[in-house]
Amino acid sequence: MVRLLTRLPLLVTAAAACLHPREEAGLPTEGIRIRRDAAEATVPIGTGDRWANGTVPRGLGTQPAGTKVTSIMTPEEVRSAIDALADEFDFEVGETPNETHEGATMFYAKVGGAGCDASYRTFLTANIHARERGAADNLVYFISDLLWAEREGTGVVFGGKHYSMADVKKALGTGIVFMPMLNPDGVAYDQAEDNCWRRNRNPDAPVDLNRNFDYLWDYKAKFADRISEFVASDDPNIEVYVGTSAFSEPETRNVKWVLDENPSIEWSFDIHSYAGLIIYSWGEDFNQFTDPDMDFRNSAYDDRRGIKIEEPGEHYSAYRAKDLWQSDSFVAQRVANAMAGATQHLRIPITAIQGILMAPTMGSLSDYVSSRGVSDPSSPDTHGLTLEFGQSGPIEDCPFYYDEEDFNFNIQGVGAGLMEFLLGAADDGLAEVNCNSHDDDSDSDSDSDDDVDDDD
Ligand SMILES: *[C@@H]1O[C@H](CO)[C@@H](O)[C@H](O)[C@H]1NC(C)=O
Ligand SMILES: *[C@@H]1O[C@H](CO)[C@@H](O)[C@H](O)[C@H]1NC(C)=O
Ligand SMILES: [Zn+2]
Predict the structure, then answer these.
(1) CA 289 to CA 323: how far, in whole Å?
(2) Atom from ligand 2 closest to the CA of residue 99
(3) Nearest residue to 222 via CA among 340, 305, 143
(4) H/E element, 149
């Protein structure tokens, strides 16, 4: 079998984010099933639907210190949590066009902004990898905190980080589009089986959805030969299996659809665990800002991409315009600092790094978002960041599962990280929006409103 990563110890610095230690060691994880007594050491999966009776979710940032969340949401609960919030706070929830392989309907929602399409300039997503428990919960509770705080005229507190009412307004003012559950089939399976499931549930061959976006997807052609087998895999038995084509999967097509419907999005943040990292573009190779022709689009460099330790004649560095690179790294560092400031019991530091420093990668949601602003002349500049919250949980067989203490700790740390991300995007300078002007650019897609359930 293909051994991932371990044959190249020099190339792997920190833990390869999102991979299980067995996967990093090139060993199969198929058939892992966490012992029941071990699974019980982690926060339980919710039973029933705690939002069905009119209860509206409320995060930890607007509740007294010491308040705890005691169970994790199922994909159905994530949806009903957002529906309950939408009823209470009157915002838009919409469904995406493609059903998942197991028939789930995916959804997105929009909060804040200024009332017109052009004002939605940020995008938050979670749980594209199924086993990263708490990813969706972190996002749902964060959104609920913003809405409760705005209504009650308060700020939010995440551990040691305090944000004012003005910060809350500013964060909502970025216009947030969000999708808390990017892999509902995979999450349902992981929760039912406790089997540390990462991919989707494509019955032909489960796909790593975070290798299925259209960014250097054809990795064998796009990366140097001596590196490409470590970038991803076309072997369905490997956890980083890329699928049969870019956007072969309904889940990734739905994300693209939401991005297409919301062309004003400038900044996105995709929530994963565990590595204690904030990752910015590019994942393909080291960045440079002097040669615009040397980038992911230029096939003249297909035999050189991804090599971290180059031999003569192998030089390639990925162009990122200087101002964009500065903005990416500055916002990532702000997020890392905020998360460190929020938490009292960090076991590893939170570090902001460029993707390549972890491992050469292709096909990720975040790099795809960054690439849209480069590939599409009608797009604003775009910045895709990835958050790797947390550190390894108590179960050796599946370090992505957390106990109650860490689950709650992550909700607060990620809350601070998401808050800082939105404030950072705003400070970086989002496009000005005037929803009242008649010649605004709000509607490259004016029929989008037909496709959503407006909860007004
Ligand atoms: C809904 O159920 C929750 C949990 O069982 C309970 O705490 C809450 O009071 C109930 N709310 C209403 C409005 O009945
Ligand atoms: C997925 O959605 C797109 C956009 O609406 C549609 O054109 C396509 O036919 C859908 N594909 C499937 C397999 O449902
Ligand atoms: Zn992940």
Answers:
(1) 9
(2) 14
(3) 305
(4) helix 135-152
For residue 346, CA distances in Å to 59, 218, 249, 342, 343 come to: 21, 39, 37, 10, 6
Structure tokens at 345: 């019991």
> Residue 110: which of 93, 97, 96, 95 has the closest Cα?
93
The Cα–Cα gap between 229 and 8 comes to: 11
> Which tokens in the block code for residue 238?
């490997």
Helix (H) or strand (E) holding 22: helix 21-24
User: Do 192 and 93 touch, CB atoms closer than 8 A?
Assistant: no
**Radius of gyration, alpha carbons of the chain:** 21
Q: Distance between CA 440 and CA 353 in Å, rounded?
A: 36
**pLDDT tens digits, residue range 167-199?**
999 999 999 999 999 999 999 999 999 999 999
- Upstream peptide bond of 402 is cis (omega within 30 degrees of 0): no
Give the number of the ligand closest to the Cα of residue 386: 3
Looking up tokens 């203490």 gives 405
Cis link prior to 282 (omega < 30° from 0)? yes
What is the value of pTM for the model shown? 0.92
Tell which one of 47, 49, 50, 55 to mutate to probe ligand 1, the residue whose CB is within 8 A of the most ligand atoms. 55
Q: At which residue do the structure tokens 């404030």 appear?
A: 423
How confident is the model over 326-331, as a mean pLDDT?
98
Cα 253 to ligand 2 centre (Å): 8
Which strands, in side-by-side order, build the sheet including 176-179?
351-354, 277-280, 383-389, 267-273, 122-126, 176-179, 107-111, 92-95, 452-453
Residue 149 CA to ligand 3 centre (angstroms): 30
Name the residue among 106, 92, 247 with its Cα closest to residue 187. 106
The alpha carbon of 284 and the centre of ligand 2 are apart by a number of angstroms equal to 30
